[in-house]
Amino acid sequence: MAFIGIRAGLRRRVLKLSPPALLASFYLVVVLTGGVLLMTPWAQTGAVGPLDALFTSTSAVTVTGLTVVDTGTDFTLFGQAVLLVLMQLGGLGLVTFAVFVLASLGVPVGLGQRLMLREDLNQSSIGDLLQLVKTLFSVALGCELAGAVLLAFVFVPDHGWAEGLWAALFHAVSAFNNAGFSLWPTSLMTYAVSPIVNLVVPLLFITGGLGFVVLNDLYTKRRWRAITLHSKIMLTFTLALILWSWPTFAVLEWTNPQTLGAYPNWWERVTISWFQAVTPRTAGFNTIVTGEMEDATALMTMTLMLIGAGSTSTAGGIKVTTFAVLLLGTIAFFRRSSELHLFGRSLGVDEVMKVLALTVVSMLIVLVAIFVVSTTHDGPFLRLVFEICSAFGTVGLTMGATPELDTLGRCVVMAVMFLGRVGPLTLGFFLATHAAARVRYPPGRVFLG
Amino acid sequence: MAFIGIRAGLRRRVLKLSPPALLASFYLVVVLTGGVLLMTPWAQTGAVGPLDALFTSTSAVTVTGLTVVDTGTDFTLFGQAVLLVLMQLGGLGLVTFAVFVLASLGVPVGLGQRLMLREDLNQSSIGDLLQLVKTLFSVALGCELAGAVLLAFVFVPDHGWAEGLWAALFHAVSAFNNAGFSLWPTSLMTYAVSPIVNLVVPLLFITGGLGFVVLNDLYTKRRWRAITLHSKIMLTFTLALILWSWPTFAVLEWTNPQTLGAYPNWWERVTISWFQAVTPRTAGFNTIVTGEMEDATALMTMTLMLIGAGSTSTAGGIKVTTFAVLLLGTIAFFRRSSELHLFGRSLGVDEVMKVLALTVVSMLIVLVAIFVVSTTHDGPFLRLVFEICSAFGTVGLTMGATPELDTLGRCVVMAVMFLGRVGPLTLGFFLATHAAARVRYPPGRVFLG
Ligand SMILES: [K+]
Ligand SMILES: [K+]
Predict the structure, then answer these.
(1) Ligand 2 ion local residues (Cβ < 5 A)
(2) Cα-only R_g, chain A
(3) Residue A46 CA to ligand 2 centre (angstroms)
(4) I need a surface site. Which of A7, B298, B345, B374 has the fewest CB within 10 A?
């Protein structure tokens, strides 16, 4: 690497600063390349302007799924294939992808790349990283192929062999990577009560949203007692969030004639509620018109979008584990324990400080974005907030504000999608490289209540 | 006290649990007494129902200022006097009040009362508490009287001697206690560009909002180097927040014909911006129609309302110091210092944990309240969120939703006002009585980004 040979102090400095910046630059390069490809006449039918193409590329690489054009009709098959590759790159992690390709071609993976990989996977030890990458690649491609085959049973009868198979593959990849892109303007509303779609698609995006650490854990250990603390928290809280949001969605929307009320049978309503309860974290498909939800349901959905899914996953948001530490830390405080412990392990100050920093930065990004967009945008406030939460959680659900945004608004949403995807990844770096304080200050007291 | 003589373990338990519960009960009793008094025909002209009376009493005791009736015309002079007493009780702190009265009557102040006083003032050492109470009483009454005299110069010419003097006293007490109650349905809009009102009223509520610890510090030490870390943070951040919100309000509203645009002169617009920039933390008077603000301005105002003013003050919200620790903790994390230090002092894990708990609980209260009210309320989402933020920060600014709320909505707003005022006070107790963990767990790791 270029910086080997430079004196130790500087090298440590470059090592410290570079990986997050490099990772962000890589994502940016892919976004720009994708945008340029989507601008070409081979990729689109002429309805997609330069800013629209860049927006779509950002949305695909950050696996968000917010759109300003119609994916199924405004892009050609080539354009859709570009989107598919962008989603896969963005979802599995660019660096993961690069390192895997290099390693399988026999190219030795250097320290710099390994450090970036570590970053992209939010891992703090470099050992066994390549093995992890191989495992997650097998799991990802296996899941996507299996999903595509199952979805083909539904899509082929409706759309014919060629279009049906392409739709099955596209939606399977989009689902596993939590990208939320659909070839149809009404997303999956046509299949709102299809049993296969309601099982396969959520299974794909929940699996993808658990994160590779959890998948690797489950893949190699297969027993509850053996898996890591991180996996235990992820699985428990994912289940808890589903068990909370599923019945709540059903109760809030049961008689809304624009959503569940349009379906006469109770099992249809329960099925749709299931899908809407899991899609905010952070899949982004919808089987009802999101903009017709009640205000209370929209609020619940926004909360779920901000929480997102798992670290080291295809999801955005502050992540389930951050939410868990926030909640458990609060409970620990009220129970007057000076330590935070769960499943028989304790969490240190570093973790609590990181949760604090991550939450504050996330809330600041969301607040500033809403503030900036609202200075020039005149639509209903709820829809604007919903859209920004959707962008930050890289969810892609929409109540209709995104296509109406002006240029400033679209640029802000693009920035928020990028920060929502890349920000937390790079933030992970700071914990690993935490330095000890050089100067110690006498303790002070502040009144906070 | 009743529990002296019971064995030590139980006594420590009662001492631990009781003060917050007792404090909350005391506030509740005053709210109910006030509500009953306001229900009587002596207090009102007949337009105030039982729920309205209870709402007004809650609003006064929690020094919020949200109203569902017209304070100036629906209540008699006696009713207004009751409100004045309720504001003074709620603002200065009930227990402070009780202890001061008892002590000045020569009644010895027992340990139990001292503990509650400690609670109400958010102090962790009992020493010098009585002295502090005496100082703050002198400061409070002095400020209120001086304010009333100055305001009389404006109000007496407009309303005659009797009504003018009463209005001057009422608004001075309301301002110093950050209560936000006005005798006029348009609050202070008539005096939007009056120099005296724009100096005296904000001076009163900013002073009251600094908190008694800061006031006592300034009163006894009078030099920057000598005052506590807490006072330094309070003064610095209060100034910073004013310097941020004043020009921002002016820029956002400058050409809005419903607010600043209605005033032709630039100095009038600057004056009104000054008032609107300081009133959200947490005075609650207004000199323009709050409901006509731009969405972006409303968002900024909501943020300021949630931050509130100082600990141990007449204000609500998460408090300026909590906000400061949130921000500085985040900056410290990014600068990779494992300790949080400011003005040459370090803050411990306990403080960070408390900030985490306080922020999470506050956000949960606000979220749950908006969620519950939105299930039955159909108005614009922004106005509802604004109203709940106003209630939690005990601010009292309104965009018009409160009078339109149904019974459920009003009960939720009452609960939020109560929690916004009493909650953080009682939360302060938990830090002081933090116990060391009895069981130590091995350290665990969670991926958070
Ligand atoms: K998505
Ligand atoms: K107030």
Answers:
(1) B 65, 178, 180, 284, 395-396
(2) 22
(3) 56
(4) A7
